[in-house]
Amino acid sequence: MESQTPVGRKITLNDIAAGCGVSRATVSLVLRGSPLVNKLTRARVEEELRRQGYVYNRAAANLRRRTSSSVALVVNELANPFFAEFAAGVDEALGEAGFVTLLGNTGESVGREQAVLQSLIEHGPGGIILSPAEGSEAHAVLATVGAHTPVVLFNRELGGTLPEYAHWDRLMLDNQRGARLATEHLIARGHRRIAFFGSHDDSSSCRERHAGYLQAMQAAGLPVEPHWRVECALTRVDAARAAHALFEGGAAPTAAVCYNDVAALGLMLGLNQRGVRPGHDFAITGFDDIAEAAMSTPSLSTLSTAPRLRGRQAAELLLARLRDPQAQAGTVIAPVELVVRESSCPLS
Amino acid sequence: MESQTPVGRKITLNDIAAGCGVSRATVSLVLRGSPLVNKLTRARVEEELRRQGYVYNRAAANLRRRTSSSVALVVNELANPFFAEFAAGVDEALGEAGFVTLLGNTGESVGREQAVLQSLIEHGPGGIILSPAEGSEAHAVLATVGAHTPVVLFNRELGGTLPEYAHWDRLMLDNQRGARLATEHLIARGHRRIAFFGSHDDSSSCRERHAGYLQAMQAAGLPVEPHWRVECALTRVDAARAAHALFEGGAAPTAAVCYNDVAALGLMLGLNQRGVRPGHDFAITGFDDIAEAAMSTPSLSTLSTAPRLRGRQAAELLLARLRDPQAQAGTVIAPVELVVRESSCPLS
DNA sequence: CAAGTGATTTGAATCGTTCTAATAACATCC
DNA sequence: GGATGTTATTAGAACGATTCAAATCACTTG
Questions:
Q1: Do A232 and A186 belong to one domain?
Q2: Residues A164-185: tens digit of each pLDDT
Q3: pLDDT at A8
Q4: Which of A78, A189, B94, B149 is at 20 to 30 A from A285, Cα to Cα?
Q5: Whether pLDDT at A295 is above 80
């Protein structure tokens, strides 16, 4: 029967060393599989490790080695499936590399973002993957994370500008192109009065998508009415509420390019409440391709972003940076792909 | 202009102490707001802290104090909105208490669960909140986390039994009662041939829900056909695929109690593909009340579990345990509430 | 003025690792 | 036999904080 210790102090290298008559240093070498140690000693030590139920104290090791084995992941809305998938991807890739994920959720609040970053940075993560809250400012973030910890920005830019010495990497989606593709698609289906729905212009990704939309509209020589730009918070409930604004004012749109899938699904709900049938009387596109997009009725035409893959990619970027801290900072623009489903019906 | 340090070593207590001519001990006292230190010294030290841009090294402090300021959160499927919400709730409550969340996602794999727990435990979390993967065994989990780290089990039981010395708390949903309520509701709406759809019997929560269903059926004197129990993985896609099995064999059911919302939404999709209209020709109930439940067409009748609140609650349980490690281990059964929407139509 | 008091400050040990430089034991070579 | 390697092992100082006992200082006070 293995001797287990139901209660008592934690086992340390000293206990093991004492337990089999070698020095602490030797045990440490065994732990890290050094070739310097004799086969027999190694076996004896390993047996003792098992017997006493030793567990490695990585925090102590990190302190001594001045390294880190964690990465902080700070997202603006974990409850959004896009970010949940993203987080799963990040955690997966970090885990494979032997890192652990420190989670922080800001709920789209700049204040909480500050608090969360502050708390996480004190735990000494090797780096930070940050999807900023709307309205988050570069100088504020830099002030709390400091210049020592590498940052990968995901999804959104920060407000203001970073000093040159902070070389932060970026992983962004091809927002402008995506929104342009969606708009062109709706135009090709015969729509001429097309709205842009959701989010706020505070967010860089929103501005980019809006720009793509405008680009396509202008290229097609189509006019754009002011009341075709409706802002809302990124929840289904708020999007449903905001839907009605599309029909107040002049000529009502027959289609909408939505900031993302959550906004699009909320818009569908709002339209249904008005008796307008999405995918029938009104065409809609989303952005993200979250799992629900394929499953909703009507299914949602959208831009696929492969959030889990993006998560892995963000993790890879950070790991690369940790390997080479001096490398030139880079921006990766992840491609997006138009997925046509039922919601982007032709003009009836 | 504040002097910032774009590059260089990390600032420690020693730097601060040297920088304003006091001892390391004094600076430490200032940091923790001790009343022992003189007002003037405190001011001088605080100024220096700001000037040098000091950041606290919580790992070092934890090592010395033999405490922990982190909690590991291990979930079986982060991409499931139910768990994403749960995670957000956990992180929120832990953050308020000054703890940081170490994330681990197992993707419903017992192997990954082991690996994830192993890696997390080495970072010395104060405790673990675990929603086990299907088929996870008590003795295996205990062996890797050890008896020193308190655990709160959420949502599912582990297989096998725990030794008495491991007093782990539990936060479970009132699965049996919930499923019974759902079934009784469908019976009250006139259904007599009711299926139980989704998940696998490996999972304790699934067995409990199934038991609740059987209980209601028996109480109403209704027969249960074997092919009315259809298992599937907890993704919409697999649920949609599995839907067809309901109609193979004898008398087809007119309603289904689903293991959870994801299964229910997938079932809807599968029914639509067969030309059966959920909420019209076929009644459905879910479990969890994820955000999409209210938004789907038809909207989904389900059992509300308030996942974010459960997350907070799990965190509270763990924090209470950290405050009093010797307290009797407890099991909390969180109430669930039937939310009637469109999907549970009367028998047509 | 010696001793007592309260308010501040500090030296040194410690947490559980890693790592450098030193030591020890033993074989090899001229 | 002494110089030279080779191979295994280890003592002890870090890492960046906390903490306790002890020291220092400025005042009272009998």
A1: yes
A2: 888 899 999 999 999 999 999 9
A3: 62
A4: A78
A5: no
* Percentage of chain B modeled with pLDDT above 70: 98
Structure tokens at B201: 């019997």
DSSP per-residue letters across B277-288: -BTTTBEEE-SB
- Does A120 touch chain B if contact means CB atoms closer than 8 Å? yes
Q: Are residues A80 and A32 in the same domain?
A: no
Are the C-beta atoms of residues A254 and A197 closer than 8 Å to each other?
A: no
The DSSP H or E segment spanning A177 is helix A175-188
Token pair for A213? 């939309």
User: Strand D closer than 7 Å to the CB of A63?
Assistant: yes
Q: Where in the sequence is the domain holding B88, given as residue range(s)?
A: 68-174+307-336
What amino acid occupies position B316? E
Residue with tokens 């802002």: A231
Average confidence (pLDDT) over A89-117 = 97
Residue B309: Cβ within 10 Å count: 15
List the CATH number of the domain containing B52: 1.10.260.40
Q: How many CB atoms lie within 10 A of CB B203?
A: 25
Which amino acid belongs to residue B194? I
Which chain A positions have a beta carbon within 8 Å of B6's beta carbon?
Answer: 147, 163, 165-166
Residue-wise pLDDT for B268-305, tens only, equals 989 988 999 999 999 999 999 988 888 788 999 999 99
Same domain, B169 and B127: yes
Identify which of B55, B107, B121 has the shortest CB distance to residue A146.
B55
C-alpha–C-alpha distance, residues B142 and B126, integer Å:
15
In this complex, the residue of B7, B124, B269 whose CB is nearest that of residue A57 is: B124
Q: Is residue A214 part of a domain?
A: yes
Q: Is residue A346 part of a domain?
A: no
Which residues 1-40 in chain A show a CB within 8 A of chain B? 4-7, 10
> Is A2 within the bounds of a domain?
no
As a whole number of angstroms, the distance between CA A120 and CA A66 comes to: 17
Distance CA A26, CA B42 (A): 44
C1' of C9 to CA of A321 (Å): 43
**How many Å from the CA of A18 to C1' of D10?**
13
Q: Is the pLDDT of residue A196 over 70?
A: yes
Tell me which residue of A52, A32, A51, A53 sits closest to A42, measured CA to CA.
Answer: A32
Question: By CA distance, what is A86's nearest residue in B?
Answer: B79
* B200 lies in the same domain as B243: yes
State how many domains chain A has: 3
Nearest to A265 among B10, B105, B295 (CB): B295
A307 preceded by cis ω (within 30°)?
A: no
Is the domain of A292 the same as that of A195?
yes
Report yes or no on B7 lying in a domain: no
Q: From the alpha carbon of A36, which nucleotide's C1' atom is closest? A: D8
Question: What is the C-alpha to C-alpha distance for residues B161 and A188, in angstroms, rounded to an integer?
Answer: 63
Of all residues in chain B, the one with the smallest CA distance to A107 is: B88
Chain A interface includes B269 (CB < 8 A): yes
Strand D closer than 7 A to residue B148 Cβ: no
Q: Which residues of A29-63 are buried (b: 16+ CB within 10 A; e: fewer)?
A: bbbeeeeebeeebbebbbebbeebbbbbbbbbebb
Evaluate if residue B5 carries a pLDDT over 50. Answer: no
What is the average per-residue pLDDT within B147-176? 94
Question: Is A163 an 8 Å CB contact of chain B?
Answer: yes
Contact between the CB of B29 and strand C at under 7 Å = yes
Please indicate, yes or no, whether residues A107 and A229 belong to a single structural domain of this protein. Answer: no
Looking at beta carbons, which residues of chain A come within 8 Å of B291?
79, 235-236
A83/B85 Cα distance (integer angstroms) = 11
Structure tokens at B333: 């059964």
